[in-house]
Amino acid sequence: MSGKRNHQTGDDRPVGIANHAKGLSDRAIAWLFISPTIAILLAINIFPLIWTIYLSFTNYRVNRPNRAVEFIGLRNYERILSDTDIWITMQATAHFLFWTIVLQVLIGFTLAYFINKKFKGNDLWTTIIVLPMMLSPAVVGNFWTFLYQPQIGLFNYVVGFLSGADPSSFSMIGDVALAPWAIVIVDTWMWTPFVMLICLAGLRSIPDSIYEAAECDRASKWRQFWTITIPMVLPFLMLAVLFRGIENFKMFDLVVQLTGGGPGSITELTSINLKREAFEKWRTGYASAYAVILFVTVFGLASIYVKALNKVKDR
Amino acid sequence: MSFSVTEPSSRQKWFAGILVIGYAVITLLPLFWIIATGFKSAPDSIAYPPKVMFDPTVEGYVNLFTTQTRMPTDLIAEARDQLPWYEQLVRERGNTIVGASRFPERFFNSVIIGFGSTFFAIVLGTAAAYAFSRFRVPLKDDLLFFILSTRMMPPIAVAIPIFLMFRQLGLNDTHAGMILLYTAVNLSLAVWLINGFIDEIPVEYEEAALIDGYTRFQAFYKVVLPQAATGIASTAIFCLIFAWNEYAFAVLLTSGTAQTAPPFIPTIIGVAGQDWPAVAAGATLFLLPVMVFTILLRKHLLRGITFGAVRK
Predict the structure, then answer these.
(1) How far is Cα A112 from Cα A198, in angstroms, rounded to an integer?
(2) How far, in Å, CA of B87 to CA of A117, rounded?
(3) pLDDT for A262-300, tens place per residue?
(4) What is the pLDDT of residues B90-121, one digit of tens each?
């Protein structure tokens, strides 16, 4: 090996490894291995982030490249925070977030609880339930508009069959009252399996010995459920909620294909609204400020939540 | 027979089984409907009540792969016996084929961009994960958290500067640009997951190899890589599925040459408006590989999903 060099003694040496490794020094290998990743993340993540922050202080518009870019300070931020339309968007997002999480936690936990009864063939059925979450939300969301068709859609037909209502009397994605639920239903169909899998991991992490001890103490099944099962699964459940929360705050593909934000702007979630500002109205500076606000919101909420989660874990 | 208090009774198992299977059947209905609609004729697809039993036809698939127009009057009287079967099929509906559709190109774009970005993300991610796992990297935990946090950004927010940057560099609507972008997005996941898999491999194996005279590099690819192989493979599947399914970046940054299938499939329309059998046919061809993969590799994939989430 030509690259033989004096071995550096010091921080970069892995703990406990003998000092006569040949070839490149460990520090050189560490840098060689890490730097491409760092470089790509800097170029595709950090640099754009800094650029977004810079643009958020300007009145730049992509579709007017010849206009002088003016530095306008916090004006974009002021306009966004005082814009009532954005608050309507936020309400739509909150409705979507709240109900998808509630439904997915309830159904996901119930399914995991019963799968954990280890009936024959449970792993195959688990896989089948997981299928929707592996598929392309845009393609599947597009097809759901077909299922939601008032007269001919399968969804309307089944609901009509079960409830006795006329299948052509309601339109899930055309009705202002129903559209917010149309997106909740499809998201729940798609992502309940995720919550289910995490709950299942939680249930399987509980050692049998705890239940055996409770049985010796003559604790009822009901009491075991509330004092052992629920507290032990809670950290996992909270983690699932965190991931679903972040993902649904970013929600774009599924809802764009389902409703496109409509009717009107009743299902216009933040990402869809942002896309309108940035890529249809081309208000680049304004949209950048919007993006920064969204990012700070996600990051802020997520860190508060993680702190709460750690408290639950420590208990 | 040994008695265990934690083993559910057979009545409980029956009840649980029926409930879970019931849910699975309901959850499968939309997917079954996609596949079925792909084999329906246009009138069958919009029949009321919805048809479960129907005469299967490949019309939808023919429409998916071709572009058509209304048949000009001089063709109507022409003899059809000599024509290929797909042209006959189309003419029965009063249309004629004028060329191939864009679907194969879009599908192929998805394949190139998906596999390309997965390859780079896995190669770079494995190297970085190994270094993070085995060397003392300054600010390691902060760096790892930072790498993961890049996934918390809404894609539309990231797309604004990426769009400007790609326009500057001429990367908009190119395969290279999309591969670079998906590599970056997948890289964070790859580093995070593979780091966990390598952490599970005892350091002693490498120490033994180093004492036997292996270089660090040899120890890495002869000792560590084979042991982490299944973990790396399941990470690769996740990267591939992400790139395969991605829509937000694709719809904003591609429009022609490099457009992938997810933004394309919803835009499929026939001669007379939305052609649901053709859309369903495209969706079936696009979704089926992922379904088959998921069922075949269920053990690794399901473990990977929870592993990635729970480790944090």
Answers:
(1) 9
(2) 55
(3) 788 889 999 999 999 999 989 999 999 999 998 888 888
(4) 888 878 888 888 999 999 999 999 999 999 99
Rounded-to-integer distance, Cα A277 and Cα A283, Å: 6
Evaluate if residue B5 carries a pLDDT over 80: no
Q: What is the mean pLDDT of chain B?
A: 87
Q: Which of B14, B20, B152 has the highest number of chain A CBs within 10 A, making it the mutation to test binding with A? A: B20
Say what percent of chain A tops pLDDT 90: 45
Locate tokens 């070839």: which residue? A23
Is residue B98 within a helix (H) or strand (E), and if so which, with residue range?
strand B95-100
Q: How many angstroms separate the CA of residue A248 from the nearest CA in chain B?
A: 10
In chain B, residues with a C-beta closer than 8 Å to the C-beta of A124 are 298
Domain chopping of chain B, boundaries:
104-267
Q: How many Å apart are CA B188 and CA B176, to the nearest integer? A: 19
Q: What are phi and psi of A278, to 5 degrees?
A: -85, -40
Verify whether the Cβ–Cβ distance A34 to B312 is below 8 Å: no
How far is Cα B260 from Cα B239, in angstroms, rounded to an integer?
16
Cα–Cα distance between B252 and B259 in angstroms, integer? 10
Q: What is the mean pLDDT of residues B15-35?
A: 94
A289 burial (CB, 10 Å; 0-12 / 13-18 / 19+) is buried
Considering only CB atoms, which chain B residues are within 8 Å of A36? 124, 127-128
Tell me the pTM. Answer: 0.88
**Residue B148, number of CB atoms within 10 A of its CB:** 14
Structure token digits, residue A138: 């845009």
> What is the C-alpha separation between A22 and A12, in angstroms, rounded?
15
Question: 3-state DSSP call for residue B271?
Answer: coil
B111, exposed or middle or buried, with CB in 10 Å at 0-12, 13-18, 19+? middle
Task: Please count the CA atoms within 13 angstroms of the CA of A313 that sit on its side-chain side.
Answer: 14
Given a contact cutoff of 8 angstroms between Cβ atoms, the answer to whether B263 and B254 are in contact is yes
Closest residue on chain A to B207 (Cα): A17
User: A17-65 pLDDT, tens per residue?
Assistant: 444 445 667 788 888 888 999 899 888 888 888 999 999 999 888 888 7
Tokens of B122: 């896995």
Q: Which residue in chain A is spatially nearest to B110 when comparing CA positions? A: A136
Q: Which of A68, A108, A103, A146 is nearest to B283 (CA)?
A: A146
pLDDT surpasses 50 at A12: no
Q: Take residue A181 and report the two structure tokens written for it.
A: 């639920």
Instruction: Annotate A159-177 with b (16+ C-beta within 10 A) or e (fewer).
Output: ebeeeeeebeebbbbeeee
Domain B104-267 has CATH 3.40.50.790: no
The dihedrals phi and psi of B251, each to the nearest 5 degrees, come to -75, -30
A275 close to A252: Cβ distance less than 8 angstroms: yes
Quick one: fold of A82-314? MetI-like fold (1.10.3720)
- At residue B246, φ and ψ (nearest 5 deg) are -60, 140
Binning pLDDT at 50, 70 and 90, where does residue B127 land? very high
Question: Beta partners for B69?
Answer: B96
How many CA atoms does the CB half-sphere of A24 hold within 13 Å?
14
Of A111, A211, A249, the CB nearest to B6: A211
* Residue B99 and residue B66 in contact, taking contact as beta carbons nearer than 8 Å: yes
Chain segment A143-190, per-residue pLDDT in tens: 999 999 988 889 999 999 898 888 888 889 889 999 999 999 999 999
